[in-house]
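Encode chain A's predicted structure.
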Amino acid sequence: MATGSDRPETDFPRAIGAPATRALASAGYTRLDQLAGVPAAELAALHGVGPKALRVLGEALAERGLSLR
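Encoded structure for chain A:
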């Protein structure tokens, strides 16, 4: 029986959802700033990362003065 969350430890917005969080963590991304400059198409190719997750991540990056490529 699992006692914790199925979401890896990250600083991604919760609004991207657990599948996208797991996909990003599996690809080696655990911090939002690691996504700066990463092509959106590369992230979209990850199973679980859809248009909503990309939009939310893009907005969160923009708040920090960063962006996807």
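The chain has a mean pLDDT of 92.
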